[in-house]
From TrEMBL:
Pfam families: Bac_transf, CoA_binding_3. NCBIfam families: EPS_sugtrans, WcaJ_sugtrans. It is found in: Membrane. This is Undecaprenyl-phosphate glucose phosphotransferase. Keywords: Exopolysaccharide synthesis, Membrane, Transferase, Transmembrane, Transmembrane helix. Its EC number is 2.7.8.31.
Length: 480
């Protein structure tokens, strides 16, 4: 099947123009280009705000806006790179991801705002100037991408984008998987011709196909020949390679269906021979650091913001019924490490044993204000302290009581995989309405499935979307 990107890439002529640029250098150029846009947006945004309100371009704040621009540019680079926004097809507009670009930029602006105002850096920077920076930066990034699209599409049409041109030789089944767009995206190659080997292991048929490929490579001025053959047919691959020795061009073997699955894994060089990482941490060290930084800054700000509500709730609980203000219960965290989760007490009981009864509608164990606390999720607010401590994250799989972990880990094979990341106050399952009691095993299976999807597809943007949906659910008093 040919998609839009294939149709455009198929137009690439055989011969290059007088100028061509390296496929690998495209990403570096785009990163540098957008970093300049972000830094200039910070300076221009600050200058525009001061000019409008103070009738002067700057009031000794130029260095501050320059520093903010540099930090925001670095953050934007990492966020955009994690979303694949520097791929050639995305830059050329063949794969449109405007929502990802703007969503990532919004995340960067929010992070910058939290860093500036909650950590009290950049005292000369006002909220208005940051908003101006955010608007100008978003407009600048979109405009910059639009300016890049036309020349990049022309470069693709003229065959100027790929560093090397290739003749593809292979069997029908494997050739059907090799699309021009994937050659460009994954290998930096532009296909100029292809030759199909015979269906059976036929020496004469293979000789004719290889001879045709060699002639085509010579006529088209190809830079290399690539093979698309099943890896288990080692003797036939070797035979074709021996025939290709008649050409001075380098020969590469593309991954087949099986190898592609394994080669997509990360290679770890712990010795002279690299190994394949069959299971990796869902988050890289940089991603963990970024998520932790966001958790610290956001939980600190939210604790300050909700301080009056926290104090008022504590007083109301104390006046409403006998017992502690906070309910502590053991939960399993990252990698099974236990911690005590904190909640406002909403029940007369404090269960933390081998048997725990899940809360249910009109539960007689609820205190006078317990139902209100749970319905509006106010009972969850003390978990911001767990987040600040590092026991939890703002977003992640919801931790369950130890008794429930013991039960469901025996019934659901993938249950323990939820502990590959820190548990969260809210999560993907919760914003999809999967919260509360799980009377049937299917209810928990569905919740676990959503948790595993979150772990596999984690990104800053996913966290941000979940937080925004959580806020909306709480404001509608539906809980999460």
């Amino acid at each position: 099947m040919t998609d839009l990107s294939d149709a455009r890439l198929a137009k690439a002529p055989v011969s290059f123009g007088a100028f061509s640029f390296a496929f690998a250098s495209l990403e570096a150029f785009a990163v540098t280009f957008e970093m300049i846009i972000v830094v200039l947006s910070s300076i221009i945004g600050g200058a525009a705000y001061h000019l409008f309100y103070y009738h002067t371009v700057y009031s000794n704040s130029f260095e501050g806006f320059l520093g903010i621009g540099v930090l925001a540019a670095i953050l934007h680079m990492f966020v955009a790179k994690s979303q694949g926004l520097y791929n050639a097809q995305v830059l050329a507009g063949l794969d449109r991801r405007w929502s990802s670009l703007l969503g990532g930029w919004l995340l960067v602006v929010l992070l910058m705002t939290l860093i500036i105002f909650l950590l009290k850096v950049g005292s000369g920077v006002s909220r208005g100037s940051v908003m101006s920076f955010g608007l100008i930066g978003g407009l600048g990034l979109v405009t910059g991408r639009m300016l890049l699209q036309a020349p990049l599409q022309r470069a693709i049409d003229r065959g100027m984008l790929a560093t090397r041109r290739a003749v593809v030789v292979g069997m029908a089944e494997e050739l059907s998987r090799v699309r021009q767009s994937s050659l460009l995206r994954d290998f930096g190659l532009s296909e100029v011709r292809r030759a199909q080997l015979s269906g059976m292991s036929d020496d004469d048929g293979d000789r004719a196909a290889v001879a045709s490929a060699i002639r085509a490579a010579r006529e088209c001025g190809a830079d290399e020949i690539v093979l698309a053959m099943p890896w288990q047919q080692e003797p036939r691959i070797q035979f074709v390679c021996d025939l290709l020795r008649a050409s001075p061009l380098p020969v590469r073997l593309l991954p087949d269906r099986t190898a592609e699955r394994f080669l997509a894994l990360r290679m770890v060089a712990s010795g002279p021979i690299p190994t394949l990482e069959m299971q990796r941490s869902p988050l890289t060290s940089f991603e963990r650091a970024g998520k932790r930084l966001f958790d610290i800054v956001a939980s600190s700000g939210l604790l300050l913001l909700f301080a009056p509500l926290l104090i008022g709730t504590a007083i109301a609980i104390k006046l409403d019924s006998r017992g502690p203000v906070l309910f502590r219960q053991r939960r399993n965290g990252f990698d099974g490490k236990q911690f005590h989760i904190l909640k406002f007490r909403s029940m007369h009981v404090l269960e933390d044993g081998d048997v725990i009864t899940q809360a249910r509608p009109n539960d007689p164990r609820l205190t006078g204000i317990g139902a209100t606390l749970r319905r509006r999720s106010i009972d969850e607010l003390p978990q911001l302290v767990n987040v600040l401590r590092g026991d939890m994250s703002l977003v992640g799989p919801r931790p369950h009581a130890l008794a429930h972990d013991d039960k469901y880990s025996k019934l659901i094979a993938s249950y323990a995989q939820r502990q590959h990341v820190k548990p969260g106050i809210t999560g993907l399952a919760q914003v999809q309405g999967l919260r509360g009691a799980t009377p049937a095993i299917e209810d928990m299976q569905l919740r676990v499935a959503h948790d595993l999807v979150y772990i596999k597809s984690w990104s800053f943007m996913l966290d941000l979307r979940i937080l925004l949906r959580t806020i909306g659910a709480v404001l509608r008093h539906t809980g999460v």
